[in-house]
Amino acid sequence: MDLIVQGIIKAFELIISFDPEVIGITWLSLKISGTATFISLFIGVSIGTAVALNNFYGKRFVISLINTGMGLPPVVVGLFVTMMIWRSGPLGFLEILYTPYAMIIAQAIIATPIVMGISLAAIQNLPPNLRLQILSLGASRLQMVWVLIKEARLPLLAAVMAGFGGVISEIGASIMVGGNIKGYSRVLTTATVMETGKGNFDIAIALGIILLLVAFAINALLTQIQQRQHPR
Amino acid sequence: MKIFRNSKVIVTLMIAALLFAFGTSNVFAAKAAPKQKNIIMATTTSTQDSGLLDVLLPIFEKKTGYFVKTISVGSGQAMKMGERGEADVLLVHSPDAEKKFIADGYGVNRQLVMHNDFIILGPAADPAKIKGVKSSAEAMKMIAQAGSLFLSRGDNSGTNSQEKKLWKTAGINPEGQKWYQQTGLGMGQTLNVTSEKQGYTLADRGTYLAMKKTLSLNILVEGDAALLNIYHVIEVNVAKWPKVNVAGAKAFADFMVSKETQKIIKTFGVSKFGSPLFFPDAGKKVEDLGK
User: Fold this and answer.
1) CATH number of B189's domain
2) Which residues 185-224 on chain A approach chain B with CB closer than 8 angstroms?
3) Cys-Cys link to B188, which of A135, A197, B222, B223 (CB 3.0-4.6 A)?
4) Domain range holding B139?
């Protein structure tokens, strides 16, 4: 019990004193996971929408693949990405193993199916006649897709939150491809594991609390935007 | 009108995210040093968990302009990385495996850096009654005979190899025994598990001292010559792996055995723990250690 109280006190000490190392770690977490989510948003929403709007042979199979991908184990992604980009791997010439770039790639791979699956379901859930209606009003196909995406914005924002929440709290892939290098690829989750290993439970708890606060702040912001769609 | 306002929000969000992404990449670009400036150093969890590298690396980086990427894993995995050319330089403590590593041509210039010692830790109650036993192998035998819980790293790290060696000397095969559990974790975490389960374990003194305050474990066996824990720095052989940063590896190895660094190692931890965590040994012979 002492330890938990101590940890919480330490957390606020670290936050209030703007501890440069903690601020750096937090900021890096935000940058990496934010960029990864953003990339996954582009790929996920566009492919999700494309699959939802087109009928083709094997569509159900593709959808099951995407839905399976929503539960992609981060460590497996980490292992796969590591093997691709280590020096002797097929993409070794890029020399990006143990860099923040590698972490962005791994996290984007984890987040993309989540965003894709949710946007696919979101677009599919729109009333089927809506498409015909929009087209009959003289919209081009591209305009129609844009209107549909806007109509589905509530679940799409949920997709952003799910994707971001998934990657900022992820550890397996981040530690494998990032290496937990001080001041360079050390993020909130990997730092928490390391401090636990060192027996610095107070700092570990503090980092955990900061991680929760960050996730909460981002989600509160997105929820604010999402819920604004229904004035009265 | 309503739709218009909503789309504005979405567009603003998109632009914000875009700026975010670009800002990010610029920051990374500015930070990333030239390629040959990066050194990948694979090392053991003990050097990292004890905090020694946090003291040494900033000095090295400031002095030479290199950027060291420390990958902290077990000695076994560190050497595997070396065998694949995924690391440039190793700081490890698994002498038998190291000799094989050199003999197989994966590494060059193996240099003695420092030592500390392993200790056998256990609960104050000491159910196997090993406290004060002089021979470490004898103590291991007693733990096995008493069937007391023993926590092993189980990760092919330097500590793990040392532990296996002790079992072998004791003539015991602990594998698959009920009282023998493998954590598969680093030294720090294994100490946490051992403390929580009130079992026995083998640990390096440095990590134990650094974590002592949160553990309820006592030193039960120490001082046996078989318990020496010796660290070497090894440069990965560039002839095998042309991508290895050979200049960086050499600079790091030189730094580790330099006079100034050895002086820092000597005093590291004294003010915090009352005794040094490592003893500098550059230039000495392994046979002379602990005398």
Assistant:
1) 3.40.190.10
2) 194, 196-199, 201
3) A197
4) 117-227
